[in-house]
């Protein structure tokens, strides 16, 4: 029978793969392993702990880098019908506290790097009743081992994931058990059980959580955890993955590295760089230049480009070994229908979200009769392959898969009096701000070095945001921007 | 050390070594992506036998600051 909840997915994986390794990771200099049975047992202990504290049915935020205990906390929450709220660990503590408030979180689970956030949340977020440090978890799990049984309904809310909105404020995408279970299990990729994978993307992203973790439970893969983005190549040598999920930025960096040593035969070099066993890279999160697919094939590595968005749990289409088309983002997932409305791709599938948490207007803008408006322009051919041609919304999708709303940055910068008008866009892979300064204000305040002052404003903004939202290019203009009839700045 | 760092930089971005100075900013001037940058710092660990802390790396913006950081870790 098809799996309909994440609880069923976990139980099936534990029944099928039992003591087989589910996770491999570094602890100091040693490699530690955890089995599928360990994951089930430990996550059930977490669920029992939540029940004991009277926290059943509440929202549980999890913040930290990818770890076995992160995944235990996630399943510990969703096992018992709690709603998991994975948050971006790279956000500043103030921004995290705002999201904790907005998601109405009652239990906050955090890793050692987020102690300061926990301290601030104790002051600022009165809704949080329980603070759980991940370093305390081994003891807590030990104390709470035992039988656990709980029925979870497929259409109940399972996870809230925050994604960049076009209006500035990030939106909490509500995904049900059915949404996530369906996306992780509906496609038979013909990947053998016990395939070794390595997880390198941030785990709060739908693409990583769904495809690195949930899909692995479907396949019975062995998930190796990359301890830092700095050590991807080093860890590939240690763990020797056969398959990895990446974003285009990583693929391009690795390609440049390969290019730097042209004298060694390509397949030999690939063995050295990728650890020796890598056969497949799944690319998602942003659009990958199809040239890369051809170039990596020369090194004996197949790149399967896919397409999706958090609102669709997230995969909409993917290329497969035996079923791919050049320059497409793959074939629609089983059960996913698509139609084109004014060049925009609309999709309907069991993976389409319930809506945005407490944002009915924004929800109504993207959901219509069960159809999700993707905001992407493109077409679907007669074999159900999706081709993208552009974006309808202004959202900037960077090559690392991060989505950035230009309006959010514009709103921040235009709070400064010296900034009269500002337009934010993507330029050569990074974020550029073009600013029309308020010269009258500068005159009044006797600001002579306008350019320096504006750079200072941008530098100050950059200090308050994660790296992917920083403005790396600045342009000044001496005339105002061209406007639309409704007095909005013309973007293109 | 500047020469060694220059050599590593050139593995990641297409730039002439003569254009790399201590004041050069990795992202704005040398054209690094954030992942290029993190991977390069990872490579520093082996080259200079140090253990980098990810949270420190956000404060490193220029080639000079990177060299300072490596020297600081080597002295620890």
Could you provide a short overview of the structure?
The complex is a heterodimer of chains A (492) and B (76). Chain A is an alpha/beta fold.
| Percent of residues in β-strands of chain B | under 5%
CATH superfamily of the largest domain in chain A: ANL, N-terminal domain
The tally of strands of chain A reads: 26
What is the CA-atom radius of gyration of chain A, in angstroms? Answer: 23 Å
CATH superfamily of chain B: ACP-like
CATH topology of chain B: Non-ribosomal Peptide Synthetase Peptidyl Carrier Protein, Chain A
Q: Any idea what the shape of chain B is?
A: globular
Distance between the termini of chain A: 50 Å
Percent in strands of chain A: 25-35%
Number of helices of chain A: 16
Number of strands of chain B: 0
| Structure class of chain A | alpha/beta
Helix segment count of chain B?
4
Which architecture of chain B per CATH? Orthogonal Bundle
Q: Order of strands across the widest beta sheet of chain A?
A: 2-1-10-9-11-12-13-14-15
Q: What is the subunit arrangement here?
A: heterodimer
What's the order of the H and E elements of chain B?
A: HHHH
Largest interface: A-B, 24 and 22 residues
Descriptors:
heterodimer, A: 492 residues, alpha/beta, Rossmann fold, 3 domains, nine-stranded mixed beta sheet, 16 helices, globular, B: 76 residues, mainly alpha, Non-ribosomal Peptide Synthetase Peptidyl Carrier Protein, Chain A, 4 helices
Structure in words:
- The complex is a heterodimer of chains A (492) and B (76).
- Chain A is α/β, with parallel strands linked by helices and 492 residues long.
- Chain A folds into 3 domains: 6-152, Rossmann fold (3-Layer(aba) Sandwich), CATH 3.40.50.12780; 196-396, Rossmann fold, CATH 3.40.50.12780; 405-476, GMP Synthetase, Chain A, domain 3 (2-Layer Sandwich), CATH 3.30.300.
- Chain A is built from 16 helices and 26 strands.
- In chain A, the strands form 6 sheets. Chain A has a 9-stranded mixed beta sheet.
- The mean pLDDT of chain A is 92.
- By secondary structure, chain B is mostly helical.
- Chain B has a single domain (2-75), classed as Orthogonal Bundle (Non-ribosomal Peptide Synthetase Peptidyl Carrier Protein, Chain A).
- Chain B has 4 helices and no strands.
- The two termini of chain B are 17 Å apart.
């Amino acid at each position: 029978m098809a799996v309909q909840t994440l609880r069923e997915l976990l139980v099936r994986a534990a029944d099928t793969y039992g003591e087989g390794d589910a996770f491999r990771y570094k602890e100091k200099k040693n490699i530690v392993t955890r089995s599928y049975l360990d994951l089930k047992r430990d996550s059930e202990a977490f669920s029992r702990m939540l029940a004991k504290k009277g926290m059943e049915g509440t929202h549980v935020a999890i913040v930290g880098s990818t770890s076995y205990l992160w995944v235990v906390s996630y399943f510990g929450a969703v096992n018992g019908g709690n709603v998991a709220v994975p948050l971006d660990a790279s956000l500043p503590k103030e921004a995290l506290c705002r999201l904790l408030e907005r998601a109405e979180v009652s239990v906050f689970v955090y890793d050692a790097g987020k102690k300061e956030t926990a301290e601030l949340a104790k002051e600022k977020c009165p809704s949080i009743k329980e603070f759980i440090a991940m370093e305390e978890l081994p003891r807590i799990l030990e104390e709470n081992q035992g039988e656990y049984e709980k029925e979870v309904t497929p259409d109940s809310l399972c996870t809230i994931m925050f994604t960049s909105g076009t209006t500035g404020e990030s939106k909490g995408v509500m995904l049900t058990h059915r949404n996530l279970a369906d996306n992780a299990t509906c496609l038979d990729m013909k990947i053998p059980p016990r395939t070794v994978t390595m997880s390198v993307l941030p785990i709060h992203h739908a693409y990583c959580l769904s495809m690195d973790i949930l899909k692995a439970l479907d396949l019975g893969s062995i998930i190796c955890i990359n301890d830092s983005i700095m050590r991807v190549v080093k860890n590939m040598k240690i763990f020797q993955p056969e398959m990895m999920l990446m974003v285009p930025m990583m693929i391009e960096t690795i390609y440049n590295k390969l290019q730097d040593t042209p004298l060694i035969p390509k397949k030999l070099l690939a063995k050295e760089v990728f650890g020796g066993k890598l056969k497949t890279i799944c690319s998602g999160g942003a659009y990958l230049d199809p040239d890369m697919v051809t170039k990596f094939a020369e090194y004996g590595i197949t790149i399967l480009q896919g397409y999706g968005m958090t609102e669709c749990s997230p995969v909409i289409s993917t290329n497969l070994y035996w079923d791919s088309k050049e320059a497409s983002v793959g074939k629609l997932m089983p059960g996913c229908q698509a139609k084109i409305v004014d060049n925009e791709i609309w999709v309907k599938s069991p993976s389409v979200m319930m809506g945005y948490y407490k944002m009915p207007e924004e929800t109504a803008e993207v959901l219509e009769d069960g159809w999700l408006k993707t905001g992407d322009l493109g077409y679907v051919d007669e074999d159900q392959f999706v081709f993208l041609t552009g974006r309808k919304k202004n959202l900037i999708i960077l090559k690392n898969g991060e989505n950035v709303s230009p309006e959010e940055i514009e709103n921040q910068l235009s709070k400064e009096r010296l900034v009269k008008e500002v337009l934010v866009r993507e330029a050569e892979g990074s974020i550029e701000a073009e600013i029309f300064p308020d010269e009258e204000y500068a005159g009044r305040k006797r600001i002579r070095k306008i350019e320096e002052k504006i750079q200072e404003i941008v530098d100050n903004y950059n200090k308050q945001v994660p790296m992917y939202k920083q403005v790396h290019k600045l342009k000044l203009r001496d005339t105002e921007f061209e406007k639309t009839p409704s007095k909005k700045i013309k973007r293109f | 050390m500047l020469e060694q760092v220059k050599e590593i930089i050139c593995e990641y971005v297409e730039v002439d070594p003569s254009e790399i100075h201590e004041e050069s900013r990795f992202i704005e001037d040398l054209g690094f992506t954030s992942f290029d940058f993190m991977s390069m710092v990872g490579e520093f660990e082996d080259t200079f036998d140090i253990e980098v802390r990810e949270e420190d790396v956000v404060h490193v913006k220029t080639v000079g600051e990177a060299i300072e950081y490596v020297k600081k870790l080597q002295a620890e």
